[in-house]
Amino acid sequence: MADAPDRLETGLPPEQEPSAAADGSERPQRIVVLRDFCLRAHGADCERCALACPHGAVSFAEAGAPVIDGDACTRCGICLGVCDAFSSTRVTMADLHARIRRIALRGERAVLTCKENVFPGLEPAANVVVLPCLACLSPEFWTLVLAEGIDVTIAADLSYCTDCVRAGEMGELLYAHAVETAEEWSGRSVGFSDVIPEKENLLRDLADPSGVDRRSAFSNLVGEVGDIASGKRRLRNSEVLQEFYERRERARALARLNLGNGTEFNDFVPEGLTKRTMQPKRQMLLEALERDPGIAARVPLVLSETDCALCTDTLSCAAVCPTGARRPDPADGTLAYDARYCIGCGLCVGACPEGAVELVETTAETLLPAEDETSL
């Protein structure tokens, strides 16, 4: 099991830090920075989060770590979509993916929309997921959902994006790019609708059956009452049952990936421990590839590569690697490399004294297991 990522300061003054209410109600959502996934915390000169933020709410401390201006931040979640180092305190990407999976397990279509499209009085149906902005989802997230064969649709009026105070035009630009990229990678499509499904209310429909005759409305009500009496409705809508199925399937998928997240004993490093950290977006991509290996050839990647003729195993590259893709082999201390963890940050290139490391353009086929591994 991977260690919990370290959190950096959010930039909120102490008086604005959320705390549990006296009645035990849910804390307000905020955005936090996770140290393990931040490249700047490891010495890289990355500014994607600041460039993407539509309100200039992200700046960098003297040590290089991102700091969030709590007054400027609108919690749009754009930073979540562009970088793994950002997370919501309320719902993680894993939580969101699990919810979409549970909707699919019920045999329903998953409908995604944003807060800007949900007006007062509108009660979205149970299969509708309301996001602060659709741009909070990365191409890898969409690719995984499509690779799993989930019927997913976006329900939104895009004309609202221009005047959206939460994310503005940047949100529309980034979310459209993420969806188009995922469709290209997966070879599948995301549906689109301008209508958000509403919560069913059979008693209301019986009283005012607009669009449906009274006999049909009454028949639906009788059928629903019968399901309730027999327990079928409870079974069909049981979140507990769906969560169980989702956890079991996810556990199987992760077991098949055989990821080595976390720390391991290693006599060839001063601290005696080495650590590998799987970036969430890379893990989603690996899960998508596990579902459909045919995607791999369409997914471009930049990874590090070592010229073995020049490498003298100084392990300078391993010392700066932020994910543990490069590390001393616990067996003999020579350089070990796992491309699945490599995110192409380039820190290893500058650290190698022999110039034995370079970044190369490749595809996700490099991340697929070797044939002898798949036959085990």
Automatic annotation (TrEMBL):
GO MF: 4 iron, 4 sulfur cluster binding; metal ion binding
Pfam families per record: Fer4_7
Domain annotation 4Fe-4S ferredoxin-type: ranges: 29-63, 64-94, 299-331, 333-362
Residue numbers spanned by region Disordered: 1-26
Membrane spanning stretches: none
Entry keywords, A to Z: 4Fe-4S, Iron, Iron-sulfur, Metal-binding
Stored PROSITE patterns: 4FE4S_FER_1, 4FE4S_FER_2
Top-level lineage group: Bacteria
Annotated PANTHER family: ADENYLYLSULFATE REDUCTASE, BETA SUBUNIT (PTHR43687), FERREDOXIN III (PTHR43687:SF1)
Name of the protein in question: 4Fe-4S dicluster domain-containing protein
The species this protein was found in: Gordonibacter urolithinfaciens
